[in-house]
């Protein structure tokens, strides 16, 4: 840089801050992550060799898949209806309970600290079990079929919807809640009048989301005996009828796709 | 109450407005009710069995509690607990590898799918690719592709989860990239930087905290997915559960469930606090990211 | 619902009241005060001086940590939840940010003023009694916006929303009205209209009104009695005439600035001003 007037170099003074130390936390974190990956990879015997050597094993499966037996679809309509019915009932019940629990699990709306804490811990536990576990539990309790599926999904829905809704409740405008207090409203009235109206659109969008998840979950729920389309998949899988299976899966795709689009449009209009 | 004139000085009598029509609301309520009744009829479930639940709950619950409360240092409970832990750890490993695969591949693909980085035809292809693999539930992927090729075992599960995660993470990351402030990118370009340098210096620093938060959240979700795939034979705690339920070994079931609950809660908490640290500690605050952090 | 005689003893008495916040800040410092029924009191002071604390202590939104605060014969300090709720149903409050439920109709917002008298099942379903709806409509008529009854609250302007808030208070049929910076978010003409509404309610219904303001000209214009707060203490207690600029400077502990008066302050009532309230 040649300037017309020469400027003397600026001497390095003590005003320059010392170079910050490297962020040890970050680098340790990254190192830990890499180590875990290597350890986990070893443990599950990660290898891509089968892609090269065993790809033939996949051939009959793939062949069956690429040649779906469309006639099979007729037998699939009833199970699909059952899946929908299961999803509707489970979403309704699960989300209704979830609304109440969400109100109890948020500091804003909980009547006291004990209720808040207990509900939060309970929800934590409910959410930690995967839907399969609930499926298997209820099949053991009430036998295979739609009832087990409904009950299992109720718990599954409860956990998810309650968590999402309680987070929305945490973020509401406290003003109307204060106004309800100032009017002398009790805890329930306060929730009904000042809190629920604020979270309603979000809550309904969560219910739609949960409904969609139920349809996707129907595969595994059916696999463990909860009825619906999953049990058809389970049967065809066991019989190695890959052509039937692929027809069913294709139909499932279409249903999920349409539902996903529908649900997203509705949710956008709500929020 | 005898307040006189209103302040705006309106001396004419104010007409009370007509209440809005109740029909739309009533109609939709009735439609919903109809839908629910239809669903109940279609499901044709043996509702009465619900009443058997309290009794069964006591019975099985008792057995499960027995299993959990027995001295865990004594045989055979000792081996029950360790077996459950082993397999739960395997599920964690499956989820971790699956998430790692997802993260590794989704990151570059996300750039190809971001409309502010790549040209339209490229983003179209990339986005459709992501949509397709996103749409395939891990279960189907496992059944159709992974299990036949890789056989039973954790590897199949990890790969199924991995491929699906590429789809979901790819979409989230590309949305994050598109949401980046354009300013820093312009600044880099103004100094003469290339597209790659712009990405490296202007986009990645903004997007990284959010993206890592997505990865961690995905990890939590994948833990549950790995348990599910386990039921199909893809290793992990799911395979143990399915075996135990088949043989109705309630004591061991209780132990396995407790292990699942405790480990899942711990991992969720850890992941949540790391995510919180990442998002609030530095980098951009975006609405999506804040939505994922508790 | 018969409006109880406002002149029944609903005196507000502060006896050696202190409010210490959890973080140690003293909101009120050994305050002794008596507000007879039907008085229009304006509380002034800098932010953090305690004026908001004073007003909010009266309906228990801010808990009193020491002393005795009574409204009529009801003691606030140590009141159980139920008593507190009953007391609050007799005290209406107007907030700076209106605090309306924006997603629902104006009418529903005003009806929340009737909650104290509505059985739980009715409030859950939103099926208020006809008499309660009638009261709500009357309240809206009193503030002059009944035609907006079924509109969503978010569609109204700031001034209109505050009038809905006042209607909500009227629907409560309260003995006392509290207002915490009711006009701070409003433009000058609207601010005057709202203060005039509060003044009319006070004069025509005889309801004790305690208003918290930081606009000194409004304080002088509308307040029958002015209480000046500083650092949690009452440093002035007198009529509007007695409160001149010097007094305010003492209360504030600094000389007055342009922010202490309403912008474009008018000396007379705003006639023909384009007030869109």
Summarize this structure as a short list of keywords or feature phrases:
heterotrimer; A: 271 residues; mainly alpha; MetI-like fold; C: 277 residues; alpha/beta; four-stranded antiparallel beta sheet; disordered N terminus
Low-confidence stretches of chain B: 1-12, 282-286
Number of domains of chain B: 1
Order of helices and strands of chain A: HHHHHHHHHHH
Beta fraction of the residues of chain A?
under 5%
Q: What do these coordinates show?
A:
The complex is a heterotrimer of chains A (about 270), B (about 290) and C (about 280). Chain A is mainly alpha-helical and about 270 residues long. Chain A contains eleven helices and no strands. The model of chain A has no long low-confidence stretch (mean pLDDT about 85). Chain B has helices at about 25-45, 55-70, 75-115, 120-135, 140-150, 155-180, 180-190, 195-230, 235-245, 250-280, 285-290. The model of chain C is unreliable at about 1-5 and about 270-275 (pLDDT under 50). Chains A and B meet through helix 1, helix 3, helix 4, helix 5 and helix 6 of A and helix 1, helix 2, helix 3, helix 5 and helix 6 of B.
Short structural description:
The complex is a heterotrimer of chains A (271), B (294) and C (277). Chain B is mainly α.
Topology of this structure?
The complex is a heterotrimer of chains A (271), B (294) and C (277).
Chain A: H1 24-43, H2 49-53, H3 55-66, H4 77-104, H5 113-128, H6 131-142, H7 146-170, H8 174-183, H9 187-223, H10 229-238, H11 242-270
Helix pairs in contact in A: 3-11, 4-7, 4-9, 4-10, 5-7, 6-7, 6-9, 7-9, 8-9, 9-10, 9-11, 10-11
Chain B: H1 23-43, H2 53-69, H3 77-113, H4 120-135, H5 138-150, H6 154-178, H7 182-190, H8 195-232, H9 237-246, H10 250-281, H11 287-292
Helix pairs in contact in B: 2-10, 3-4, 3-6, 3-8, 3-10, 4-6, 5-6, 5-8, 6-8, 7-8, 8-9, 8-10, 9-10
Chain C: E1 12-20, E2 26-35, E3 40-45, H1 51-58, E4 66-71, E5 74-75, H2 81-89, E6 91-94, H3 106-111, H4 120-125, H5 130-143, H6 158-172, E7 176-180, H7 188-205, E8 208-212, H8 216-222, E9 225-230, E10 233-239, H9 245-252
Parallel strand pairs in C: 3-8, 3-9, 6-7, 7-8
Antiparallel strand pairs in C: 1-2, 1-4, 4-5, 9-10
Helix pairs in contact in C: 5-6, 6-7
């Amino acid at each position: 840089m040649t300037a017309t007037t020469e400027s003397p170099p600026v001497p390095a003074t003590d005003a320059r801050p010392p170079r910050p130390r490297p962020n040890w936390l970050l680098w340790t974190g990254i190192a830990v992550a890499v180590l875990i990956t290597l350890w986990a990879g070893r443990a599950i015997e990660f290898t891509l060799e089968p892609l090269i050597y065993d790809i033939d094993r996949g051939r009959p499966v793939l062949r069956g898949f690429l040649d779906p037996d469309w006639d099979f679809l007729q037998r699939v309509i009833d199970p699909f209806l059952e899946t929908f019915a299961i999803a509707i009932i489970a979403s309704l019940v699960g989300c209704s309970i979830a609304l109440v629990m969400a109100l109890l699990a948020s500091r804003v709306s909980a009547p006291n600290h004990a209720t808040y804490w207990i509900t939060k811990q309970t929800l934590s536990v409910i959410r930690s079990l995967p839907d399969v576990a609930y499926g298997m539990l209820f099949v053991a309790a009430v036998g295979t079929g739609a009832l087990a599926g409904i009950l299992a999904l109720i718990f599954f829905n409860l956990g998810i919807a309650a968590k999402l809704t309680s987070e929305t409740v945490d973020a509401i405008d406290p003003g109307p809640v204060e106004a309800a207090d100032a009017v002398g409203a009790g805890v329930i009235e306060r929730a009904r009048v000042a809190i629920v109206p604020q979270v309603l659109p979000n809550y309904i969008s969560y219910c739609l989301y949960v409904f969609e998840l139920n349809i996707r979950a129907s595969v595994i729920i059916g696999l463990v005996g909860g009825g619906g389309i999953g049990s058809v998949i389970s049967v065809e899988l066991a019989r190695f009828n890959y052509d039937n299976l692929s027809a069913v899966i294709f139909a499932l795709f279409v249903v999920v796709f349409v539902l996903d689009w529908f649900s997203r449009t509705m949710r956008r209009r709500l929020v | 109450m005898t307040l006189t004139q209103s302040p705006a000085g309106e001396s004419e009598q104010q007409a009370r407005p007509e209440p809005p029509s109740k029909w739309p609301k009533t109609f939709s309520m009735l439609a919903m009710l109809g839908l629910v009744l239809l669903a109940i009829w279609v499901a044709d479930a043996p509702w009465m069995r619900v009443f058997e639940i309290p009794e069964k709950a006591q019975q099985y619950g008792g057995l499960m509690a027995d299993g959990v409360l027995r001295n865990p240092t004594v045989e055979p409970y000792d081996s029950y607990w360790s077996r459950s832990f082993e397999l739960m750890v395997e599920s964690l490993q499956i989820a971790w590898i699956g998430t790692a695969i997802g993260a590794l591949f989704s990151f570059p693909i996300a750039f190809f799918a971001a409309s502010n980085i790549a040209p339209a035809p490229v983003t179209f292809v990339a986005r459709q690719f992501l949509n397709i693999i996103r749409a395939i539930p891990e279960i189907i992927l496992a059944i159709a592709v992974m299990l036949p090729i890789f056989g039973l075992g954790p590897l199949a599960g990890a790969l199924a989860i991995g491929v699906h995660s590429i789809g979901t993470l790819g979409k989230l990351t590309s949305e994050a990239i598109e949401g980046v402030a354009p300013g820093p990118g312009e600044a880099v370009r103004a100094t003469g930087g290339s597209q790659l340098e712009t990405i490296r210096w202007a986009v990645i620093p903004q997007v990284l905290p959010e993206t890592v938060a997505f990865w961690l959240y995905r990890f939590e979700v994948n833990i549950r997915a790995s348990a599910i795939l386990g039921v199909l034979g893809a290793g992990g705690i799911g395979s143990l559960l399915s075996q135990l339920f088949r043989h109705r070994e309630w004591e061991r079931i209780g132990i396995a469930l407790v292990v699942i609950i405790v480990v899942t809660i711990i991992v969720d908490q850890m992941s949540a606090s790391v995510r919180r640290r990442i998002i609030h500690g530095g980098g951009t605050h975006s609405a999506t990211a804040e939505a994922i952090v508790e | 619902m018969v409006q109880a005689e406002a002149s029944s003893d609903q005196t507000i008495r502060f006896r050696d009241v202190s409010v210490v916040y959890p973080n140690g800040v003293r909101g009120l410092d050994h305050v002794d005060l008596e507000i007879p029924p039907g008085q229009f009191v304006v509380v002034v002071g800098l932010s953090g001086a305690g004026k908001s604390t004073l007003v909010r202590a009266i309906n228990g939104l801010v808990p009193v940590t020491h002393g005795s605060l009574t409204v009529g014969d009801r003691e606030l300090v140590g009141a159980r939840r139920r008593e507190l709720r009953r007391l609050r149903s007799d005290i209406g409050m107007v907030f700076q940010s209106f605090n309306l439920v924006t997603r629902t109709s104006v009418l529903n917002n005003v009806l929340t003023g009737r909650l104290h008298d509505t059985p739980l099942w009715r409030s859950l379903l939103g099926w208020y009694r006809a008499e309660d709806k009638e009261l709500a409509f009357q309240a809206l008529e009193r503030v002059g916006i009944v035609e907006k009854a079924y509109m969503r609250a978010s569609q109204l302007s700031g001034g209109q929303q505050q009038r809905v808030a006042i209607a909500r208070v009227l629907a409560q049929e309260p003995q006392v009205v509290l207002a915490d910076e009711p006009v701070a978010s409003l433009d000058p003409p609207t601010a005057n209209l709202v203060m005039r509404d509060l003044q009319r309610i006070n004069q025509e219904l005889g309801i004790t009104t305690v208003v918290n303001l930081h606009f000194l000209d409004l304080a002088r214009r509308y307040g029958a009695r002015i209480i000046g707060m500083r650092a949690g203490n009452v440093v002035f207690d007198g009529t509007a005439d007695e409160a001149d600029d010097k007094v305010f400077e003492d209360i504030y502990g600094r000389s007055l600035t342009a922010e202490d008066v309403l912008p474009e302050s008018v000396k007379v009532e705003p006639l023909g001003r384009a007030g869109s309230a």
